[in-house]
Amino acid sequence: MNSFATVMNLLRERQQFLEDIRLGVKLKPKLVNLFISSSVFFGIYGLIIGSSSSFLQAVFSGIKLPALYLLTLIICFPTLYFFNVMFGSKQSFEQYLTLLLAAMAEISVLLLGFAPVTFFFMLSTQDYQFFKILNVGIFALTGFLGVKFFYDGMQFMCEKDEEGQKLRLSILRFWLILYAFVGSQLGWTLRPFFGAPGEPFQLFREQDSNFYLNVIESLNQLFQ
């Protein structure tokens, strides 16, 4: 319950939550609680999209979706932290990590909010391409809002840390693009999350094509 209370505090008292991060108030409990709650929410959404195919796909999608966001964070976080420290940031490792996990938690909550919509379309349509594009749109929207929260939070934390501030914000914009590319390509690597109709369960698929070409192909098939 403490984990979910931390998320609710983030949603209701966002400014105070960011101020606590900037001041380094109780960061370790926040880290643990944000990680637990976001993993649960991602897992629930993964179960829903995987259940469009089979029980086994639902179980593994419920595991792989939290892993996708966590691995993206692990891959990209060192670049963000060390470049910011190099150019004058005084924020600690825990402060950066807490803010990034807060952004992840926000994405997970938004996905949980979309879960009933996704479940409805899963039950009411058998169009695989539509269901896939619908979820690509949901992931894109929730990811954008989470990234915006992180960017606003970084600006807030840098207000009193003026050394190299403009350069660090420029680096941050580049890093956010990198984060999006890594996340989308890692999602392609960990696929399937839905499971294609008529095909047996696969834990992973062969690495052919790429995420962006596949989305274009799905759009072409959907509107033919």
The rounded distance between the terminal residues' Cα atoms is 48 Å
Radius of gyration: 18 Å
Helix content: over 70%
| Principal-axes shape call | globular
* Tally of helical runs: 8
Number of E-state strands: 0
Write up this protein.
- The protein is mainly alpha-helical.
- 79% of the residues lie in helices and 0% in strands.
- It is built from 8 helices and no strands.
- The chain has helices at 2-12, 14-23, 27-50, 55-86, 93-124, 128-158, 165-190, 211-222.
- Helix 5 (93-124) packs antiparallel against helix 6 (128-158) and helix 6 (128-158) runs antiparallel to helix 7 (165-190).
- The radius of gyration is 18 Å and the shape is globular.
- The mean pLDDT is 89.
Q: Which terms would index this structure?
A:
224 residues; mainly alpha; 8 helices; globular
Short description:
The protein is mostly helical.
How is the secondary structure organized here?
Elements: H1 2-12, H2 14-23, H3 27-50, H4 55-86, H5 93-124, H6 128-158, H7 165-190, H8 211-222
